[in-house]
Amino acid sequence: MPEAKANKGAATDGADDGPTTDGASGSARPRRRQARGEARIAQLLRAAADVFCTSGYTASSTNAIAREAGVSPGTLYQFFPNKEAIAVELGDRLLDRWRDTYGAAFAQSRTELPLDRMLDAVLDPLIAFNCENPAFSVLMHGSEIPGQITEAHDTLHATMLTRVESALADYLPDAPATQIHRIAEMAFMVFKAGLDLIMAHEGEERAAYIQELKTMMFRYLDPLVGDDAPGPAPQARTDTP
Asked: For residues 92 and 89, what is the distance between their CA atoms, to the nearest angstrom?
């Protein structure tokens, strides 16, 4: 597993320190070696993120990642056996951070806010994470991504959809579950589409697209969950003349 490879690499990094027989220094050096190994792994993962964003996952290579990190390919192979292992480790770390981000974004104190303030409180950290970590989008949606990353992403997608449904249920306590699910899916897809546009722009244009996304989300949700929202919409007719 990539983590096991990384740990093995961390143990080998700094091996030139050599063994010690002194108790005090002997306890310090393994910690020093471990810290150096973790720093090297972080360096390689940052380089991989840059290369994946620049070239795409498929066109990237371990040589390009090593070059970006300023190390030899041999040093890279001390920690990761191949590009896939690097992608899996990077994807795992980004997914962990994404879970923390959306977990905080959907905290109950935020989802109980008025709709316009709730959209700011929920969307801002989600958008910021994606803008600060463009490799996340590359690894979650690119072609030929290792299967375990896409499986983890699909599971995460389902979990996030459940969180959106839970937030909507607080606004629509009398709505049937099927209606809440449809609204959640629609809102989620609007967010994903808007995020693609946001990621494609920078500076003032990015800020403008963020505002457009919030406006679109508000105008869609306000008639459904706002203070003046009507009751459940009439059911579509299924009979034929």
From this structure: 5
